Amino acid sequence: MTQYAGVDEMPESQRQKQKKQTRKHLITMAFNQLAKDGLINTRTADIAKAAGVSHGTVFAHFPTRDALLTEVINEFGARVTRRLHELAGGGSVHEILEAHLKGLAEFEPFYTRLVREGSLLPESARNTLIMIQSAVSFHLSQAAEREMAAGIIRRLPMHLLFNTWIGLVHYYLANGDLFSPGKPVLERYGKELLEHYLTLITE
Amino acid sequence: MTQYAGVDEMPESQRQKQKKQTRKHLITMAFNQLAKDGLINTRTADIAKAAGVSHGTVFAHFPTRDALLTEVINEFGARVTRRLHELAGGGSVHEILEAHLKGLAEFEPFYTRLVREGSLLPESARNTLIMIQSAVSFHLSQAAEREMAAGIIRRLPMHLLFNTWIGLVHYYLANGDLFSPGKPVLERYGKELLEHYLTLITE
Amino acid sequence: MTQYAGVDEMPESQRQKQKKQTRKHLITMAFNQLAKDGLINTRTADIAKAAGVSHGTVFAHFPTRDALLTEVINEFGARVTRRLHELAGGGSVHEILEAHLKGLAEFEPFYTRLVREGSLLPESARNTLIMIQSAVSFHLSQAAEREMAAGIIRRLPMHLLFNTWIGLVHYYLANGDLFSPGKPVLERYGKELLEHYLTLITE
Amino acid sequence: MTQYAGVDEMPESQRQKQKKQTRKHLITMAFNQLAKDGLINTRTADIAKAAGVSHGTVFAHFPTRDALLTEVINEFGARVTRRLHELAGGGSVHEILEAHLKGLAEFEPFYTRLVREGSLLPESARNTLIMIQSAVSFHLSQAAEREMAAGIIRRLPMHLLFNTWIGLVHYYLANGDLFSPGKPVLERYGKELLEHYLTLITE
DNA sequence: CATGAATGAGGCTTCATTCAT
DNA sequence: GATGAATGAAGCCTCATTCAT
């Protein structure tokens, strides 16, 4: 049931706006639902219900389930990346990692799903994770370069430096239900992980 | 005892052996198939076909799909654990990590599936991963304790020491197709990871 | 209320009607099919085919096979009961039994299936039979009470009076194919049963 | 595992005897199992297990499941019939009905299964029930004839006289779980049914 | 465009029956 | 003859996707 009695009465631009809005809403609610029940176990019907639209509407906006997930994931990737850039602007390694954790913590449920289930999803999911990591990597590399030069942190190959950090964080996220049942892992262990990691890479 | 008493007396070497063999074969082929197509995306019919038996035979040996997967995973866990204990017998931290990589490398495809998909599977999958890690943790802790005492490696909380290593290894495994397409990651990056990690934890 | 609020407002006469119709059609055709092939031996696919819909459609309307059967049986129970009340309104014992036979005759095939297979079905089937019998019992008790008081029929415990009648009728229904092959038993033997039974209970 | 090391050592007659014995045993245990779990819901594997033989042995003795059931039912029919003849030898109507109840009570569980599920089974099941009833009918008819002539019981068409009785008894058997949960119905209600019925048919 | 009923391919599981030993 | 592992034809149910309204 639309807001208008006859479809043709709606001005074109209005209609398009409406459509874009529905699409956006769908992405938002899908995001929530996927974070809640997982990327694999959420059915298109669940998403439709969560968004308060008909099941068919999902396919009016996205040709396939995969396309919707890809969109949600991409959207998410863009937001996280933006946020990380915001937070991590040119500080020390310590500050950048802190910003990274803060940024992830804001999206922990969905990000965790991506870490856990990403490898079962369309390539876009993987690419998004790569993109997010690039954002961090970018800032971290610069800071690390500086601090290596300044003798603050050890000289280590950048990719290993970075992957050690990511590996550590992902490991805690993926096993959050074991490490910190019922409570965000990053909240509970973030500080500890950060300090530990800094210890490791500090001269 | 009547003639209808049941047939537990003599091992009935012929038939029972045959059945055990089929069961074993099924587990082996399931193992391969699961390693190849993933734990989520492998259907019971695929396993039957891979094993060269009828679909029904799968259920003559395992009551449900889950039971079969659990069996395969447990079997796998036991083998890996045993192997890790074999390899990691009381050496230095370096030797133990080397042994760990060697042990995992022998089972890389399946282990990778477990790391990637474990969180979507019956609890047994998680438990198996925990068990495997316990095996490594056990040896690593002892060696690390010694070497910390000897001033060879840094004093660090054991769980962080361990999880940093596991996180790093799992991260490379989970993304093996990106880091090392078409070739086992551990073969390509194992040495590098090991040396890097040792650098980090060395005084 | 947003535009995504759900659509309970207007009856959406078109679609909802259509769905209800399909559901009803499904129940009707299931009813026929079950009467024809029996409650045990009718598969969901048969019902779908009989209704001219896809197999999946059955489950779009009823969560399980059992739920569908239960629905059909309940619907049937309600109809028969209503009909029996209609027919049996406060007459003599003779009239009530006549009404009972007439009511059953209208639904003989399905009712016979229920009598034959009821004990193998979900509880709802039993309950429905009980409900139907309660309807008759209610009217019969009242009339019998009156006629016993008036010395028209013998003084007999009500439950035995009733169960004798039901037992007789069910026996003929359950063996209808022997007593009256290719033709409704009640049509052929109803009158005779009624007269016989009245003879028995008459002073 | 047979009692003999080599099959050919067994004398022909011995073997045949053995086979007949197994067959008999199978029928006996099938009888118990069918009485316990019902004719529809008992699987051939259950029967084999109950008999302590292999699943295949069932099919070595009976070509199909139906053939086995038929055999069991026929065997049962013969026994009940014989027993009924034994018990019901030429007494009064009262004595004959009493004998009938007594005879059925000895086999109540299986007989009840037959009454409940008979119409879903191969024709032989129906025929057996008919045969059993013929046995009773035979004695009852003679006695009833006498007592009608003697003015003890009413003059009623024999088939109605008989079917009223059978209908009543079957009704209580089929609904035994409702009328007398956890206890044989005939034990609890037999006497009452008998007296009630006699009242009905008595002048 | 939005709707949601209908679709149907495909997955898991059961069980009477077969057959090599 | 007895065995029991293996078979495979069904049966129930799920869910992404389509399409008439």
Automatic annotation (TrEMBL), chains A, B, C, D:
GO terms for molecular function: DNA-binding transcription factor activity; transcription cis-regulatory region binding. Pfam families: TetR_N (PF00440). Residues 20-80 form the HTH tetR-type domain. Keywords: DNA-binding, Transcription, Transcription regulation. InterPro entries: Homeodomain-like_sf (IPR009057), HTH-type_TetR-like_transc_reg (IPR050109), HTH_TetR (IPR001647). The keyword Transcription regulation applies. Residues 1-22 are annotated as: Disordered. Residues 43-62 bind DNA. This is HTH-type transcriptional repressor. It comes from Pelotomaculum propionicicum. The lineage of its organism: Bacteria, Bacillati, Bacillota, Clostridia, Eubacteriales.
